[in-house]
Structures are given as C-alpha cells and as structure tokens.
Amino acid sequence: MENKRGSFKGSLGFVLAAAGSAVGLGNIWRFPYLAAKDNGGFFILCYIILALTFGFALLVTEIALGRKTKQSPLTAYGKINKNFRWLGTLATAVPIIILPYYCAIGGWVIKYFTTFVTGKGVDAAGDGFFTGFIVSEAQPWIPLIFMAIFLVVTAVIILGGVNKGIEKMSRILMPILFILIIGISIFALTLKNPETGATGIDGLKVYLIPNFKELTLKTAFTTIFDALGQLFFSISVAMGIMVAYGSYVEEDTNLMKSVNQIEIFDTLVALLAGLMIVPAVFVFMGKEGMTAGPGLMFIALPKVFAEMGTVGTVVGVIFFVMVLFAAITSSVSIMEAIVASLMDRFGWKRKTSTIIVLVYAIITGSIVCLGYNKFYFELPLPNGSVGQILDLMDYVSNNVFMPVVALATCILFGWVAKPKSIIDEVTKNGEKFNRKIIYTVTIKFVAPVLLIFLLLQAFGIVKL
Ligand code: PFF
Fold first, then answer.
1. Which residue of 35, 134, 196, 208 has the fewest C-beta atoms within 10 A of its own C-beta?
2. Cβ-count burial 185-224 (b if 16+ within 10 Å, e if not)
3. Which spans in 347-401 are helix H?
4. Would you say residue 2 has pLDDT above 60?
5. Can you say whether residue 127 is alpha, beta or left, with left for phi > 0 and alpha for psi between -120 and 50 degrees?
C-alpha cells in the first residue's frame, strides 16, 4: 500500500496544500460576518487565543497521525488503537457531509464570478438577486449546473494525484490568492463615502477594537463558542483532511514549522478577509450593513461594488476570482479525504474512487441546491435559527460530528496513546516541539472541556 501513496515534494508544497485546504469560504465568507456580529475585536482576540492553543493542538495531532500511520482517516485511527476504528469512520463522515454543500456554495461563487466578468456586476447588487438565483423558481436546475461545474473542476484536480494535481494547484493558486487579498484589503482601507464621509479606517476601527462596554457574560460566551466553531471549520481539523494530507508528508519534513506556517497563513487570510469586507461594507452601508450575517459576501458586498462604479466591477471580478481559488483548494482537500479513504480501505484506484465520489457529490449536491426550491422546507435548528438542507448539513457536521471527532481524538491522544506518541513523531528527526506544555494541557484537559460544552450547547442541553 505504502509504495502506491503519493507524496508532497518538499515542505513548501505541503504547507501550501494544507493552507489551501484551511483557507476557504470559511475565512472569506464566515469569519468576517462572525467578527461583524460578535463585537469585532473581541471575537478576533478569542479566535487568535484559541488558534494558538486548541487549533494548534488538533492540527499537530492530525498531521502527525497521518505521517505516522501513512493512512487516510478511515483507517489511521484504528492503526493507533483498534478500539478507535469507529473514529476513522466518523472522521470520514464529516467530509462526506460537507462536500455536497461546500460545492453548492462553490457554485454560487462561480455564478457571481461570471456575473461580474460579463460586466453585469450591478445586477448582483439588486435586491433579490441572491435569493432569485438560489431559488431559480422557473429554472431550478440552474444552480445545479454551477455546482456541477465546481465539482468537476475539483475532481479533475484530484485525478491528477497528490503531486501533479493537489500540490501543483496549490503552488500556483495560493500565492496568487495571497497577493489578491492583500491588494483588495489595502484598497478597502482607502475607501471613502462621499456622502457620509465614512472612511475605511473608521470601518477598520469597528472591526479591530474590542467594544468591552457592550460585552456581557452571555455575549462573551457566545463569542467564544462562535470562535471555537469557526476555528474547527477554518483549519480543517476534525474532518480527516489533515490526517490525509499528513500521510503524504515526507519523513524529513519539519512538522512543527509547517504547522506554525499553516496556522499563520490561515489566520492571516481570515484577518485580511475581514479587513477587506468589514470596512468596505461599513463605508457604504454603515454599521447596519454589517449585520447582514451570511449574506455579507453575497448580498452586501455586491452592493458595495456597485457603489464604486466601474472600479467596483474590476474589484468584484478580482474578489470573486480570489474566493473561487480559496473555495477550490478547500473542496479539493475535502474530496481527497474521501477518495484517499476509499483507496486505502478498498484498494481501489484513484480514478475509480474519484468517479464514485463525484457521482455521489453530484447527486447529494443537487439535493442541497433543490432544498431552496423543489424540496423547500423550514427546519428549526437547536441554535434557534431556521434552515434548509444546507443549513442542516452545516449544523450537523460543525456542531455535532466535528466536536465528537475532536473530543474522541483528544481522548485517544491525551489519555490512551498519550501525547508522547505525537510529540515523538514530531521530534523524530531531532526537531524541537515548541509549546509542549500547552499541547499536553490542551489535549488532555482544556480541549475536552470546551468540546463537551460545545456539544451540550449544540444539543440544546445548555443554553447561553
Ligand atoms: N477550511 C475550509 C474553509 O475555511 O473554508 C473549509 C473546509 C475545508 C471545510 C475542508 C471542511 C473541509 F473538510
């Protein structure tokens, strides 16, 4: 089995691929709206603290587990301890749930990209454009086509394999993405609303400075747990992906250094995404615009681009290219976790596994898209919101499956196989393991407590 495994050529390729997985719609679409909703600076502070402790511990563990076992998630956990085979199945279930809806959103991004590139960006600013598209009452198959295009592009990259597909794509797309996001962020800070006089710098203050006056115990807890949930999704842990990518890492790669780079990259992009979206929306729509929630990117931002006139069309094109790159590098990792698991478990070829996963994703992704028209229903979720199929899948994967996988991972490596098994893998070439104490305390105590709380909250047992 081992000789059939692909591998990343060099640590840069690995870091870019893992960062490609981490940097995605979560950073650009989810982080800014959570920051805007949750007291900006305070949310960012919680996020960074959690990233350096909780996120770091899980990321190191999963990558080291992958490299140690040379297995994909489905079989890796069982190799450490037979009683934890079920954990592999559960971890693989997460990308299976996420892939369809992630690709549905990827399809929306393609739709926006094509709208802007064909010079019709102003249409996207119209009220009802977003809803009109996802509902597409007269032609409900249209969102399906965009989703399928997104999925096929993802599958083609996967077919290229670890080295010629995933690594090559990451080496090309990630640097471009980074340059684009820095460019748009700087541009956002120079904005000024001629009517109100609001500037990007004013928006920056709202985004970065914590508002302790408005902070209550309840909002503080909500913010901490929003940050925790976001962190999981954002660094792609508790879903098998980093295990799969870790299994392609060469033996002499410095894991500690790579993990730090991946985290910095991911956090930086999330911060920059907020930096370009929050001030821009603030300048043109005021503080109310920032409460647009998930609609910040698809509804509020196109309105901002329209306000900018011709420049807005160009910025809109660049922005959606960037989002598309971020989404594709992530969806590739989600699909790879499933494809690799099938290859390892059943000995299937990459091509066979990819085609099976593609067919599965097209069918389930179509159901997700049709959840806004043909299969429309309103489902109350335990967090008080009402959702469609997409929200249900997002809720189940993020609030139930991922915390359970993470909790079981903490039990496995905190108490059963012990933190030493990971520390030894990371330091086997004589590297230093920074933050050893933080790692041990987090994986044994802090993370399990936070996760149990998160789960109790997800099941509506504890209400904030
Ligand atoms: N981390 C990616 C993001 O922030 O968008 C999303 C993601 C990647 C989710 C891989 C799930 C996953 F398996």
1. 196
2. bebbbebebeeeebbbebbbebbbebeeeeeeeeebebbb
3. 350-370, 389-395
4. no
5. beta
Per-residue confidence (pLDDT) for residue 292, from 0 to 100: 67
Report CA-CA distances (Å) from 21 to 128, 205, 305, 352, 403.
31, 30, 28, 23, 19
CA-nearest of 283, 148, 138 to 202 is 283
Q: What is the DSSP string of 175-224?
A: HHHHHHHHHHHHHHHT-B-TTT--BHHHHHHHHHS--GGG--HHHHHHHH
The atom of ligand 1 lying closest to the CA of 239 is 13
Give the DSSP H/E element, type plus range, for residue 379.
strand 379-380
For residue 248, give the DSSP letter: T
**Is the Cβ–Cβ distance between 53 and 277 less than 8 Å?**
no
Per-residue H/E/C for 255-278? HHHHHHHHHHHHHHHHHHHHHHHH
For residues 159-175, give the mean pLDDT.
95
- Lowest-confidence pick of 225-239, 278-292, 295-309, 356-370: 278-292
- φ, ψ at 383 (rounded to 5°): -85, 10
The Å distance, Cα 180 to ligand 1 centre, comes to 20
- The C-alpha angle 30, 34, 37, rounded to 5 degrees, equals 145
Buried-state track 343-361, b at ≥16 Cβ within 10 A, e below 16? bbbeeeebeebbeebbeeb
pTM: 0.92
Give 85 Cα–ligand 1 centroid separation in angstroms: 23
Q: What is the mean pLDDT of residues 329-356?
A: 96
Closest CA relative to residue 402, chosen from 99, 94, 155: 94
Phi and psi dihedrals of 380, rounded to 5? -75, 130
CB count in 10 Å sphere of residue 429? 10
What values do phi and psi take at 231, rounded to 5? Answer: -60, -45
**What ligand 1 atom has the least distance to the C-alpha of 241?**
13
The mean pLDDT of 331-342, rounded to a whole number, is 96
> Who lines ligand 1 at CB under 6 A?
21-22, 24-27, 95, 98, 233-234, 236, 239, 241, 330, 333-334
Ligand 1, atom 11, residue with closest C-alpha: 236
**Using one digit for the tens of pLDDT, what is the confidence trace for 55-75?**
999 999 999 999 999 999 999
Q: Residue 192: phi, psi to the nearest 5? A: -150, 135
CA distance 284 to 196: 9
| Per-residue pLDDT, 4 | 63
Distance, C-alpha 316 to centroid of its chain = 22
Token output for 82: 């037979």
